[in-house]
Amino acid sequence: MKSITIKGSERESVGKVATKALRNAGAVPCVLYGGDQAVHFSAEEKAFKNLIYTPNAHTVVIDLGNGKSYNAILQDIQVHPVSDKILHIDFFQLFDNKEITMEVPVKIVGTSKGVLAGGVLRLNTRKLKVKALPSNLPDFVEADITPLEMGNKLYVTKLVSDKYKLMHPDNTVVCQVRISRAAMKAAQEAAKAAKAPKGKK
């Protein structure tokens, strides 16, 4: 999985006054969990744009500039309800020998037979939760729709991998090819024509 480096600095004071001063200066207060103890730090708000405003999944290298750096994933983010300003971010530390669960996007590949026949592809699940060691985390889960006929569904069981586990029930539908209104109307008209009595010669 691709990684983004966030450069920040450790916070000495974590009180409300210090937090407010950070935000006024254009910085975001953050906390890194998962290690022996929580690490409080801050970074400029613009440093997070490639991490947050993207449909892609990333791991993060938190570089605190004092010889300390941590591998992590974004765990939670608080945003102001009106201004959309980032108020606070929680990260979770990664360890090479510990599995982690995170959401990654679904990437559709192939051309469905059902779509070629006039059906409409509907993506039911845009992201899937995967559990894996950090080195095995995928950038995306590939979903091949080539075999799907009109009316078929692609279940999560078809997307298994040796490198990660999908944390969803077996009956989870990733995508499906639905019959379009035009195709349905054509089928109805064909059925009517087949039932209609043939004229005498």
UniProtKB/TrEMBL annotation:
<dbReference type="Pfam" id="PF14693">
    <property type="entry name" value="Ribosomal_TL5_C"/>
</dbReference>
<dbReference type="InterPro" id="IPR011035">
    <property type="entry name" value="Ribosomal_bL25/Gln-tRNA_synth"/>
</dbReference>
<dbReference type="InterPro" id="IPR001021">
    <property type="entry name" value="Ribosomal_bL25_long"/>
</dbReference>
<keyword id="KW-0687">Ribonucleoprotein</keyword>
<feature type="domain" description="Large ribosomal subunit protein bL25 beta">
    <location>
        <begin position="99"/>
        <end position="179"/>
    </location>
</feature>
<dbReference type="InterPro" id="IPR020930">
    <property type="entry name" value="Ribosomal_uL5_bac-type"/>
</dbReference>
<keyword id="KW-0689">Ribosomal protein</keyword>
<dbReference type="InterPro" id="IPR029751">
    <property type="entry name" value="Ribosomal_L25_dom"/>
</dbReference>
<dbReference type="InterPro" id="IPR020056">
    <property type="entry name" value="Rbsml_bL25/Gln-tRNA_synth_N"/>
</dbReference>
<comment type="subunit">
    <text>Part of the 50S ribosomal subunit; part of the 5S rRNA/L5/L18/L25 subcomplex. Contacts the 5S rRNA. Binds to the 5S rRNA independently of L5 and L18.</text>
</comment>
<protein>
    <recommendedName>
        <fullName>Large ribosomal subunit protein bL25</fullName>
    </recommendedName>
</protein>
<comment type="function">
    <text>This is one of the proteins that binds to the 5S RNA in the ribosome where it forms part of the central protuberance.</text>
</comment>
<dbReference type="GO" id="GO:0005840">
    <property type="term" value="C:ribosome"/>
</dbReference>
<keyword id="KW-0694">RNA-binding</keyword>
<dbReference type="InterPro" id="IPR037121">
    <property type="entry name" value="Ribosomal_bL25_C"/>
</dbReference>
<dbReference type="InterPro" id="IPR020057">
    <property type="entry name" value="Ribosomal_bL25_b-dom"/>
</dbReference>
<feature type="domain" description="Large ribosomal subunit protein bL25 L25">
    <location>
        <begin position="6"/>
        <end position="91"/>
    </location>
</feature>
<comment type="similarity">
    <text>Belongs to the bacterial ribosomal protein bL25 family. CTC subfamily.</text>
</comment>
<dbReference type="Pfam" id="PF01386">
    <property type="entry name" value="Ribosomal_L25p"/>
</dbReference>
<keyword id="KW-0699">rRNA-binding</keyword>
